[in-house]
Amino acid sequence: MSDLPDLPALPVTFRPGRTRAVLLTAGVAIFVVITVIALLLEQLGPGERMSFVFTGALLSCVLLLLSRPKVVADESGVTVVNIVGKRRLEWAEIVQVNLRPGDPWVFLNLSDGSSLPALGIQPGIAKQRAIEDARTLRALAEARSIGDPETHQG
Prior knowledge:
The protein is of the alpha+beta class. Helices cover 42% and strands 21% of the residues. The protein contains three helices and seven strands; from the N terminus they run E-H-H-E-E-E-E-E-E-H. Residues 148-154 have low confidence and may be disordered.
């Protein structure tokens, strides 16, 4: 078990922090700028102003959805929250945690033969952090799926 990273105390949440900060900041800025423009343009009527504000709110909501992904690991399993979906997995359902070079995010290979993207760990802005998070999630999955991480080497 010496080649596995130290396991964190559970529950632990993995999310792309820098990406999330950029998206949320941009969402607020876009909404504020479009709303201020709508209020400052004197030739606009009330309906047109509302359409500006609605457009700003819509763009901000899209950025909020893009900032939603996370992976939460606890004693009983993993919750994967992607842009519009959420899925709860037991540890035994996770066969393998993959983050290969060039992958946009982690993929979880599941016991039913399917693969689930986990957008909460993505190497976009913080590549090294994503690699560390993927290794930690892999170690947690190996340690908890059967209870003996030595049987899961590879």
